[in-house]
């Protein structure tokens, strides 16, 4: 049995399509209206055309596809992209699945209560020392660059090193271990706050 392609639809030309998952929030005085919808459009359609003046928008765009049987999978991927856009909270944000980095995708897919409990336990252990936690966050957000983290925190570079070294016994591995850094990046990107 063969899969149906979008180019098999009457009158259509062979072309890639995308799924756009959109949440629009319009505030008018005392009321706030949130509308969500899904659109299947040609891949060359600009997602920006779904933005309405005066509102904020969270738009997730799937990767291009032709085979109709992929629609359920790509609906889920567009939902993940829209959830990343929503987490940003900066008014209008368009997130395209094919532009996501693996750690962004993985962190956004952590969505069960169990996923969040695993991440929370990991983050809570690291956040037991608030100064070390704040330093770790700055260090990661500054690209693991000690001088930039120190400047951001307005402390000496050796203070950053000292605080980071205090976390290594908690982690059980050095911060130079790529898998440890991957765990930390996933925990930071998962959107759960330390329970402190």
Summarize the structure.
Helices cover 44% and strands 18% of the residues. With 196 residues, it is α+β, with helices and mostly antiparallel strands.
Describe the structure.
InterPro entries: CdaR-like_regulators, PucR_C-HTH_dom, PucR_C-HTH_sf. Residues 133-188 form the PucR C-terminal helix-turn-helix domain. This is PucR C-terminal helix-turn-helix domain-containing protein. With 196 residues, the chain is α+β, with helices and mostly antiparallel strands. The protein has two domains: 6-99, no CATH class; 109-189, Arc Repressor Mutant, subunit A, CATH 1.10.10. The protein is built from seven helices and four strands; from the N terminus they run βββαβαααααα. It has a four-stranded mixed sheet. The protein is elongated, with a radius of gyration of 21 Å. The N and C termini lie far apart (55 Å). Mean pLDDT is 81; it is low at 1-10 and 192-196.
């Amino acid at each position: 049995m063969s899969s149906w392609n979008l180019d098999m639809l009457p009158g259509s030309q062979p072309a890639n399509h995308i799924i756009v998952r959109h949440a629009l929030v319009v505030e008018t005085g005392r009321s706030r209206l949130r509308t969500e919808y899904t659109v299947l459009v040609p891949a060359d359609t600009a997602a920006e055309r779904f933005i309405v003046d005066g509102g904020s928008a969270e738009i997730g765009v799937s990767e291009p596809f032709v085979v109709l049987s992929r629609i359920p999978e790509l609906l889920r991927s567009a939902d993940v992209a829209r959830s990343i856009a929503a987490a940003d909270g900066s008014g209008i944000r368009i997130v395209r699945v094919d532009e996501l980095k693996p750690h962004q995708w993985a962190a956004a897919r952590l969505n069960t209560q169990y996923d969040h409990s695993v991440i929370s336990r990991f983050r809570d252990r690291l956040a037991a020392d608030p100064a070390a936690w704040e330093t770790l966050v700055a260090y990661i957000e500054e690209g693991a660059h000690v001088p930039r983290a120190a400047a951001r925190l307005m402390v000496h570079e050796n203070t950053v090193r000292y605080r980071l070294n205090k976390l290594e016994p908690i982690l059980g591995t050095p911060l130079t271990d790529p898998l440890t850094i991957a765990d930390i990046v996933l925990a930071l990107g998962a959107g759960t706050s330390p329970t402190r």
